[in-house]
Amino acid sequence: MLATMTFFxxxxxxxxxxxxxxxxxxIVEGVVLAGSKLSETELSTKYxxxxxxxxxxxxxxxSCNLVERKANVGARVVALTPEGLIELYQVRESLxxxxxxxxxxxxxxxxxxxxxxxxxxHFQKVKTGESYYQEAGDVDFHYRIILGSKNRHLIxxxxxxxxxxxxxxxxxxxxxxxxxxxxxxxxxxxxxxxxNRDEELAEMLMRRHIMYSQRNVETKLExx
Amino acid sequence: MLATMTFFxxxxxxxxxxxxxxxxxxIVEGVVLAGSKLSETELSTKYxxxxxxxxxxxxxxxSCNLVERKANVGARVVALTPEGLIELYQVRESLxxxxxxxxxxxxxxxxxxxxxxxxxxHFQKVKTGESYYQEAGDVDFHYRIILGSKNRHLIxxxxxxxxxxxxxxxxxxxxxxxxxxxxxxxxxxxxxxxxNRDEELAEMLMRRHIMYSQRNVETKLExx
DNA sequence: GTTTAATTGATTGTCGACAATTTAAGGTGG
DNA sequence: CCACCTTAAATTGTCGACAATCAATTAAAC
Lengths: 224, 224
Known about the structure:
Chain A is mainly α.
C-alpha cells in the first residue's frame, strides 16, 4: 500500500504550482547551485513560462527559506553554511519535540498501530541487512509523528518550511551516512513512549534523537 | 531612546511592500473581517493599485498564515477558532522556549543589561500604578529574547509568522486583560536565568510563562 | 593616479488585457 | 418538485509591454 508515502499530495493545479515544485526540486537537489542568482528572465526561458509565473514561484521559495530576495536587486538561492545547519537543527529539536509530545496526546490507536507496523518493516530490512534508511525510512517516520501532532501550524512549518531545507543540506553535503541501527532503536523508544501516552518522555526522546543526529552531522562537517 | 522598539524596521521600498503592510494591518486589526473573502479586483480599487500588487500581497499574507488561498477560487482571511489559538500557543511554547534557551547561551552581556533595564522601567510603571503592559511591554520583552537567540529561522518564524496572528487573536477577541503583575515576576525570573546563563532553566521558565498565558486566554474564551 | 560623476545596459517592479476556470442562474426534462 | 444540463457572469490565472531602479563601465575632474 503506502509505499512512497507522499503525505500531502501536493498536486500542481496551476502553472505556477508546477514551476514552483520543479524549481524547488532543482534547488534542493543542487541542479540550481546554492548561492547562485535566480534571474527571472533566464528562468522564464529555461522553464518556458512567463516571468509572472517565475516571480510567483520565487516568492513561494522565499517563504520556504530556500531563496533570499532583495527589492530591486533579485533573488539568490540560500548559501549552505555550518551555522545555518546548526540553526536548522535547533529549530527541529524544538518543533519536533513538541510534535512528539502532541502525537503522544493526539494520535489515534490506529495511527499508532500503523507506526509500529512501519517500524517493523524497517526492522526486517535492518535484520536482513538491506541498505536501509538513507532518507525515505527516516523521513517517513518523522512525517508520521509530525502529522500525528494534529497541529496545523506545526505541520506546515516543518513540512513546508523546514524539511526541504534539511533535504537540501543532506543532498548537497552528501549526508547519507551511517547512524542506522542506533537511530532505529531511538525510533522504537519514541514510539513506545507515544504508545504509553507519555508526552513528557516522547518529547524528551525526540529531542535527544535530533540532537544525536545533529552531532553526527557536525562531525561529518568537520571531516570535510 | 528606543521607545516603540520597532526592531526589524520593515521599511516598505516597493508598492507591493506598502500594500502588504497595509493589508496585514487591516486584517490584524479587524478592519478586514476574519473569514471574509479577499477579492482581488475589489482590493485593487480599494487600495488603488494594480491586481498584480494585490496578488503579491495576498501571497505574502498566505506565508504569514493570515489568509488561505485555493487555486482558481480565491483567498479568505483565516477564521479565528479556539482550536487555532491553542495550536498557536503550543507552537509558541516550543519555539520561544528554545529561544530563551539560546538567548541564555548567545546574548551579549550588553544585551542582557539592556533587558534588565527594560524590566526596570516596566517595574517603575507597575509600582506607580500606570496602566501597564497591554501589548507593548510584553511584546518588547519577548522580541528581545527571540532576537537574542541569534537563530535566524527562529526569529523569522516567530516575528514574521506567528506574532501577527497572535496579535490578530488578541485584538479581535479583546484579550488585553489583567495578568500583569504575575507576568512581570515571570519575566524577572526568566531574565535572571538568562543572566546566569542557565539554558535549561531559561527554557523551562519561558515555557511555563507561555503556558500560564495560554490558560489565562482559555478561561477568557470560556467566559465569552 | 585616484576619486567622483554621468551614462549605458540590464534587471526588477508595475500595469492593463486576454485566457481559463469557477460559480450562479436559468432552463429543460423526468 | 427535484435533478441535471446549459449558459452567462464574475473571478482568478497568465501573458507581454512599459516604467523604475540598480550595477557597471566610461568619462571627467581634482
